[in-house]
Specification:
By secondary structure, the chain is α/β, with parallel strands linked by helices. It folds into 3 domains: 67 residues; 132 residues; 233 residues, Rossmann fold, CATH 3.40.50. 50% of the residues lie in helices and 10% in strands. The chain contains 18 helices and 10 strands. The strands form 3 sheets. Strands 7-6-5-8-9-10 form a 6-stranded mixed beta sheet, with helices on both faces. A two-stranded antiparallel ribbon has the order 1-2. A hairpin with a 3-residue loop joins strand 6 and strand 7. The chain is elongated and about 95 Å long. The two termini are 49 Å apart.
């Protein structure tokens, strides 16, 4: 095990407790029992083998592949690699990173990118951080560390042309050999950049404290990223979460429907059973209900304040079309328009989003108005709600201090088989400012739905 730094925990027990706490703080679900499982796993491995230690913790604490990147970042902070023995060795002889010229360092990095172990690349990265990553801080006795200065000095992405020239040595360019080399070198560059970033985080943590750096170094797992704060990259990854959720939502609504009704009377079975009681039908038998796919109406706030949430829920709408006999989707800002036409089977989802933004009629003056939108929905699309319909309303219930039209909403809900409202804002923000969440909540049950995990939990409650 590496020696603890100035702010590092003093013992393995302290490190373990701090590491598990940091995982929970980062949004990774780690129970007390799983923490104990990790302790038991540590008893049967060689603690001096850092990768065995990493594997033992990962096997007991990481439940989903999406949690692994955050786990690795925190593991490297709480169980950093040793910083001793940083001198790298090249094929042609020893290389001392502390005294070598920049040209030699770049040549050595090129060799490592074409073929090296992870350990060799990490040691070289630590040496480069030591040489290029340090900058004096304003406070006496403190230092700043930066990945950017290391990568700017070595410019690993500019080594590709020279590597191809040396490796291919006259072979035809553009073929399989070049493609293979490019993939291997590209992967090596990413490994080197991550090794540099890891060592920079470790050095900052030694100076500023592990807990402080851990809070800022790890983004929440994808299923806990706030819908109102997602990036374009997050949305692209969230698309993979949509179809499983759509299937589960459809299944839950179907189960709820089946539990609420029985099939038709099975006359023959009832008469046959009555023979045991002298022809008195003490026990009635019913035929199983016919398989049923529920109908769904989605009413979605598409205003800028909830644009990321709207984007995700419209992706969900797109996926739900495959799970329900009928799905009708309506978007609104201060008036409402049916947007089902943009999500026809076979349509490209990105093209559908673009057409929706350009062709739909959801805006009068551009300020969100739930009351007017509900009134227009009741006037134009009242036939969309029926006794077989589940109504799903998606929005933050912020209506710019306009009348909420509660009577209209009450009428719509009473005509539906079931109704639910998903709100992407934290509960503590409901009823602040122009929010009328509690007023709408008296008519239809409102659920906080800020991320995929909460959406999945909501779906589970429908059973």
């Amino acid at each position: 095990m590496p020696e603890p730094g100035p702010t590092a925990p003093a013992s393995l027990v302290d490190r373990h407790v701090g590491f598990v706490h940091a995982l929970r703080a980062a949004g990774l679900p780690v129970s007390v029992a799983e923490g104990l499982d990790a302790v038991n796993a540590l008893r049967v491995i060689e603690l001096a083998d850092r990768e065995s230690l990493r594997a033992a913790y990962a096997a007991t604490l990481v439940k989903r592949p999406a949690y692994r990147p955050g786990f690795d970042v925190l593991f490297d902070l709480w169980f950093p690699a040793s910083t001793t023995g940083l001198a790298a060795v090249r094929a042609g002889g020893p290389l001392d990173p502390a005294t070598a010229e920049l040209k030699e360092l770049r040549e050595h990095l090129a060799e490592l990118l074409t073929g090296s172990t992870d350990q060799e690349l990490r040691e070289f990265a630590r040496a480069m951080v030591e040489r290029f990553g340090r900058q004096a801080a304003a406070s006496p006795g403190r230092q700043n560390w930066f990945s950017y200065s290391v990568l700017r000095a070595l410019s690993p992405e500019t080594l590709m042309a020279g590597i191809l020239r040396n490796v291919l040595q006259g072979q035809e360019r553009g073929g399989l050999a070049e493609k293979t080399v490019r993939q291997r070198v590209g992967a090596g560059i990413r490994r080197f950049e991550e090794a540099v970033a890891t060592d920079v985080r470790r050095r900052i943590a030694e100076d500023a404290g592990i807990e402080r750096i851990a809070r800022s170094a790890v983004r929440p797992p994808l299923d806990q990223v706030d819908f109102l704060r997602v990036t374009k990259a997050d949305l692209a990854r969230l698309r993979r979460e949509v179809h499983p959720l759509a299937r589960r939502l459809a299944a839950r609504l179907t189960i709820k429907h089946r539990k609420g009704r029985r099939g038709r009377l099975d006359f023959r079975r009832t008469v046959r059973a009555s023979l045991q009681s002298g022809g008195v039908p003490l026990t009635t038998h019913f035929k199983p209900p016919r398989p049923h796919k529920p109908e769904l109406v989605i009413l979605c706030d598409t205003s800028d304040s909830v644009s990321s949430f709207a984007h995700f829920t419209l992706l969900l709408t797109y996926a739900l079309r495959e799970q329900f006999t009928k799905v009708r989707a309506f978007g609104f800002v201060d008036t409402v328009d049916e947007i089902t036409r943009f999500f026809q089977p076979g349509a490209d989802v990105v093209e559908a989003m673009t057409r929706l933004a350009n062709e739909s009629d959801m805006v009068r003056f551009g300020r969100t108005n739930y009351g007017h939108s509900l009134e227009r929905f009741a006037e134009r699309y009242a036939d969309a709600i029926g006794p077989k319909t589940s109504l799903l309303i998606l929005g933050d219930a912020r209506s710019n201090y306009q009348p909420p039209a509660l009577d209209v909403l009450r009428s719509l809900v009473s005509g539906a088989r079931s109704a639910y409202w998903l709100n992407p804002e934290p509960k503590q923000q409901w009823d602040t400012g122009d929010s009328v969440a509690s007023e709408y909540g008296t008519v239809v049950a409102m659920h906080e739905c800020r991320n995929v995990a909460q959406l999945a939990a909501f779906i589970e409650t429908l059973a």
